[in-house]
Amino acid sequence: MNKAMNFDDNLSTDKIWYKSRTFYRIKKNRRLVVGTFMVAFIVFVAVFAPLLASEGLYSFNFDARLAPPSSDAPLGRDDFGRDILSRIILGSRVSLIVGLVSQIIALTVGTLLGVLAGFYGGTVDNIIMRILDIFFAFPSLLLAIALMTIFGGSITNVIIAIGLVYTPAFARIVRGSTLSVKEKEYIESAKAQGMADIRIVLLHVLPNIIGPIIIYATMGIGDAIITEAGLSFLGLGIQPPTPTWGGMLSNGKNYISVAPYEVIYAGIAIMITVVAFNTLGDGLRDFFDPKQSV
Questions:
Q1: Mind giving me the DSSP string for 73-142?
Q2: Which residues of 239-267 are buried (b: 16+ CB within 10 A; e: fewer)?
């Protein structure tokens, strides 16, 4: 009985120590803390955008076209007299949805292809990677432009196009991680026990490569937002009247010499969002780094 009680006490002590150690590592990781707060703020703005925006999507004030910042429009107004701050807030929801969902698509498809290529190797690996090399031959924005020319401009098509653009990068990262993991002794032991491949992948491969996947997906959200802004700027992305930061840049460039507010603040919104997700990604990279575990 005493031995059992001592074992439970030791187990409870180990759990407390592990939690306190993890909390200490998180607290010490400034980039992770700062990135988390920045991303949380952006998510908060996107979720409650309709409540935070002082004016609606179709609120026009033609008497105040290109008006400078004022008390009723802190960031000024565009060529239709719309409040720029409200449009930036409303556009945050679109940018975040595109970034998150497109990366989920890229992560899902890329992980599937990468695991298949890395785990089975040989002909399967060659076929998958040669196909993906075709996508790597094109710059990401150029490939996105080509896909949007085929699909047409809508939020669904933008998400699918950006997801496909970033799928090859995910597949390559997952393949490399899978190649290193599948040589481990516990994988060989699982195979020797006759465990099915799907169980080996789900129970042993994926849990041990999840770190790099999460890090790349987090940083990829910022890249996806930039790509969406580029497509909207070129007129190939999400079409008006849906507010997008790239669309605001495209619209504001025509009046940049007399009223640069729309271009400046839409650009700042993109910059802050990308920096936030990159900072969070850097923090997660340090957190998952074994060298930083001490």
A1: -TT-B-TT--BHHHHHHHHHHHHHHHHHHHHHHHHHHHHHHHHHHHHH-HHHHHHHHHHHHHHHTS-HHH
A2: eeebbbbbbbbbbbeebeeebebbbbbbb
- Alpha-carbon gap, residue 79 to 113, rounded angstroms: 47
**In-domain check, residue 57:** no
Mean pLDDT of 2-27: 50
Query: What is d(CA 9, CA 173) in angstroms, rounded to the nearest whole number?
Result: 41
Sign, Cα dihedral of 13, 16, 18, 21: negative
Backbone angles phi, psi at 77, to 5 degrees: -130, 155
In a domain, 172, yes or no: yes
pLDDT of residue 149: 83
- Please, which residues have CB within 8 angstroms of residue 21's CB and are 6 or more apart in sequence? none
Residue 10 has pLDDT above 70, yes or no: no
Domain range enclosing 197:
70-292
Residue 30 lies in a domain: no
Q: How far apart are CA 184 and CA 189, in angstroms?
A: 9
The two three-digit tokens of residue 24, written as one number: 């200490």
Q: Please state, rounded to an integer, the average pLDDT across all residues of the chain.
A: 83
- Give per-residue pLDDT as tens, 176-211: 888 888 888 878 888 888 888 888 888 888 888 888
Average pLDDT, integer, range 212-228: 88
- pLDDT of 268 strictly over 90: yes
Specify which residues 83 forms β-bridges with.
Answer: 77
- Alpha-carbon span 244 to 250, nearest angstrom: 10
Whether 63 maps to a domain, the answer reads no
Tell which wins on pLDDT, 19 or 55: 55
| Chain segment 113-123, per-residue pLDDT in tens | 999 998 888 88
CATH of the domain at 82: 1.10.3720.10
Total domain count, the chain: 1
